[in-house]
Amino acid sequence: MKGVEIPPAEDDFSADPVELFFDLAFVFAFSRLVYHLVHHPDWQGIGEFVLLLFMIWIPWSQFTWSANAVAGNARPVRVLFLIGTVASVPMAASVTTALDGGGPTFAIPLGVILSLGLFTMVFGLPPGHEVRRSIVRYAIPNLIAVAVLVAGSYLDHGPRLVAWTAAMLFVIGGMVAAGSREWLVRPGHFAERHGLIVIVALGEVIVAMGAALVADLEDGGGLEGKTLTATIAAGSFACLLWWGYFDRVNRALEHRHTEMADGRSSGRYARDVYTLSHLPIVAGVVLVAAALEEIALHPDDTLGDAFVWMFVGGVALFFGGIALTVWRAYETLATERVLAGVVLGLVVAVAGRSMNGLVLLVVSDAVLLTALVIEHQRKEHPRVAPG
C-alpha cells in the first residue's frame, strides 16, 4: 500500500469502475432480500429483513468511506475492492439462509469485507495523518463486531439473532463516537456513490415489474391486458421514485455538503445524511419491490395485509428517509412528501382490505405525482407576496 495516492483534500473525484463492479454483488444481495420478504410476509420476516439489510449496508458503507479518503483508482485499492467483490457473492447468496443453516457462509464473508474496508483506509493513509488516527479508533468497535458476528453465526437461531444485534450495536456505538473526530470526505464522490446504490435498489423494482411479463410470455398466450396495465402503473411508480430522489434531492445534498467548514462537520454530515439516512431510503425501495412483485403477478387479487403494509411502509421509508436528509441538510421539512405518506397511510387504513393491488398502485401513482408536482411548483415558481 506504500504507493497509494492520497489526493489533496480539496480535490473531488468520480467513483472508480471497480466501485461499480463491487456494487454488482449488492444487486444480488438485494434480490435475495426481496425473495425473503415475498416468502416471509410477516412481522418476523420484516424484522429479519431489517437486521440483514443493516448488516449488508455496513461493509458497503465502509468501502465507500475508504474509497472516498483514499484514491479508488489506485491499483492496491482496486485489488482490495476485487477481493471484496468475490467475498460478497457467498454473502449475498446466503442472505435467505443466514438465520438458519447458512450463518457462517453469510457472516464470514461479511466480516472479511468490513475488515478489508477498514484496512484500506488505515493502511492507505500515511502514519501521523489525523484521519488515520480517526479510522484506527473507529476500527476497534467494528473489529469487535466482526468477532461477535462470526462467533454468533455458529449459534442457534435465537442466540444468533441476539449476537448479531449486539454486533450491530457495537457498530452504531462506533459511528456515534466517530462524530467528534477528523475525517476526509469528498462531497461529489459521496453523493455519486449513494446515488448509485439507490439506483441498484431501484433495479429491484424493475425486476419485480418484469416478473409478471415473463410469466405471461412463458404461458404462450401473449400479454394480458391486466398485466400490461399493471406494468404501466408499476413503471410510472418506479419513475416517480427516481424523480423523488434524483430530480432535486441528490444534487441539493451534495451542494450543502460542499459548504461544510471542516473535517469534523463534514464527517458528521456524511454520517447522518448518507450512512444513516440513506439506509431507510434503500430499505423502502426493497420493501416496495417485494410488494410490487406480488401486485404485478396478481393485479386483480385483493392484496394481503402484509403486502399492503409492506408497500405503504416502503413508500413511507423512502420518502421519510429523504425528508430526514433534507431536514439534516437544510433544517426544512419536505412537506409534500410527508403529506403524501400520510395520505397513503389513511387510504390503506380506510380501504386497504378491499383494494386489489392494481388499484393501490394507481392511487399511489396519483398521490406521489400530485405531491411532487406541487413541490416543484412551490420551489421553482414561488409566489411573491404583494407589495
Kindly describe this structure.
The protein is globular and about 65 Å long. It has helices at residues 17-39, 43-69, 75-93, 103-124, 130-152, 157-178, 187-219, 225-246, 249-257, 263-276, 278-297, 305-330, 335-351, 357-380. It has 387 residues and is an all-alpha fold. Helix 9 runs parallel beside helix 12 (305-330), helix 12 runs antiparallel to helix 13 and helix 13 runs antiparallel to helix 14.
The gist of it:
The protein has 387 residues and is an all-alpha fold. It contains 14 helices and no strands.
Kindly provide the radius of gyration, computed on alpha-carbon positions and rounded to a whole number of angstroms. Answer: 22 Å
What name is given to the CATH topology of the largest domain? I/LWEQ domain
Provide the CATH top-level class of the largest domain: Mainly Alpha
User: What number of domains?
Assistant: 2
